[in-house]
Amino acid sequence: MNAHHSRGRRDFLRAATAVAATAALAETQLTGTATAAGHHHGTDGRPDGTDRPHDRRSTAALVERIHRAHGGLRLWRDARHIKADVTYGGPFWAFKGVPAFVGTDHVVADIHRQHIRLTQPSGRVIEFDKSRDLVTVTEPGGRLERLRHPRATFDGYTGESRWSVAQAGYFRAYATWLYLVEAFVLTHPGVRITEIEPWHENGRTWRVLNVTFPAGIDTHSRDQQYYFDADAHLVRLDYAPEINGSAPTAHYQPRRAAFDGAVITTRHEIFGRNADNTPDRSLVRISLDVANASVH
Description:
Layout: H1 3-21, H2 56-69, H3 73-78, E1 81-89, H4 92-95, E2 103-110, E3 115-119, E4 125-129, E5 134-138, E6 144-148, H5 165-180, E7 192-201, E8 204-212, E9 223-228, E10 234-239, E11 249-259, E12 262-273, E13 279-280, E14 286-295
Antiparallel strand pairs: 1-2, 1-14, 2-3, 3-4, 4-5, 5-6, 7-8, 8-9, 9-10, 10-11, 11-12, 12-13, 12-14
């Protein structure tokens, strides 16, 4: 382990411990109860603002419950990697010009930094390393493509723009990394958490965290909304992917399982999101199924 990685890991561990152990975090990373734009939820899931927001102490307690529900901070802190087979489906990939991206990738993801490697059924290997801001695509015959500063290559793109293999690989790589470590990523340095009004859907009430990510983590959008059920499990995620025309998206997570003690979502269903914040369930644009995971 090099000195830079050691320092980063020590900084991460200090931040993770702070989230779990002290209410003083409410004055720093937990930033109050301001409502995210477009997510001011009323008592019927409408933007009328009639629900009472939670105070910072309550939000800090929720964050601790989230970590416990997903295996506990100690487990995640001590682990280094997640391995899994991830099956990707939906019409989105063909629409973006990469129909062969439907299928099952073998994924190896670092937990403490945004680095992930995906091996596709063809033998193609896609690797994303945020610290180098680099995507590499290695084809079965050995041909290597490097995409430097991948985010910048989407400048001017709309939701109708087609993507290259390397661009689609970048999207898949950073997104899959987030989905595998999604509860634990709340502890990463620079992540800021604000609880907003709860959301009511089909007779259920979910507490909602607006999470603002630092520049050091690539995400769909800088602000994303995380919905948690009564058991503190993540059940929905909202965002507007900047590299895909910032299309409003509702991402549901109906199933999860424990792997080596860590609770990971095993089913992802991604829909468009209507102006009233409800999902457009007429089409599952992207699906992900996670199997054979291990955390070590």
